Structures are given as structure tokens and as C-alpha cells.
Amino acid sequence: MLRSDFPAETLAELADGRRLSFDAQGLVRRPEAGPLQLDADFDPALLEHVSILKLAEEEAIAAVGSLEPEALAALGPREILVTFGSRGALVVVDGKAERVKAHPIEADPTGSGDAFAAGYLASRAAGLAPVAAARRATSLVGTLLAGQLR
Fold it and tell me: What is the CATH number of the domain that holds 17?
């Protein structure tokens, strides 16, 4: 996925009357052939209608140049999640940040970011606050990874 795959108009339509979650992997990927390159040269309008933005650590750094809560909050969405793999996640809501710890598990992490996002969204839909939802999502990913070890 590349940022050119998601026009701002499409995201606006998807968000109409809903909270829209967006995984930033496509946001920071340059739309060109060749080795994958990340940068911050995206249209800010892409995030205008996004309520929840999930970024992996390297995507957050590519998007804003740091992991500072103020810089992340400046992206616009009310809820921003930065995942750090086995090191947990950062939840930034309305500019306030809180770290969520994870319990490292030696397993293939493929799909962990997607599982985290699904767990977070399901928890938010069930009424949990953002940090509690991130804790539950982190626990879910740990449980899934631990299941690989059996």
C-alpha cells in the first residue's frame, strides 16, 4: 500500500458519520517503484477525517521526525497510536501521551500490528478508554504470539 492508494476524498467519504481508523503504513510510503522508502511528503488532507491513526515506530519518525507527543498530535487525529513491537505502544490522545508496556515474546511478529489495531478498535467499540484499549490490544497480541510457541 502506498499513500497514492488513498485519496483524501475517499477517506472523507469513509469517515462520513463514522470514526475512521487509518494505519499509516501507506501514508509514509513513497509512491514509486523500487526499494521501499518512507518520508513525510504526504498531503495533510489525508488525515483530516481520520479519528484514530496507528503508526509503527519507523512510520511515526518518517511522518514527523520524532516520537514527541506534540509532534505526533500535530498530525491531527484525536487518537494516535505508535507501536514499538515487543516494547509496547504509545497512546497520544488530545496531545497527552501514555506508554503501554508489553511482555516480550520470541515469536514471529508478522501480523502483530494488524492484530493490535483490531484489538484496539474492538476495545474502543466496547467502550474502553484509549489507554485501556491499547493495554487490551497489547495483551491480545501477546496471547496470539504465545500461541505460536506451543
Answer: 3.40.1190.20
Distance of CA 147 to the CA centre of its chain: 23
Q: What are phi and psi of 26, to 5 degrees?
A: -75, -25
Catalytic positions are 114
What's the rounded Cα separation, in Å, for the pair 24 and 8? 14
By CB neighbour count within 10 A (0-12 exposed, 13-18 middle, 19+ buried), where does 52 fall?
Answer: buried
Residues ≥6 apart with Cβ < 8 Å to 78:
51, 52, 93, 94
What is the model's pTM? 0.90
- Residue the block writes with cell 502506498: 2
The grid coordinates listed for 58 are: 519507523
Residue 143 belongs to domain spanning: 3-148
pLDDT in tens, 41-75: 888 988 999 999 999 999 999 999 999 999 999 99
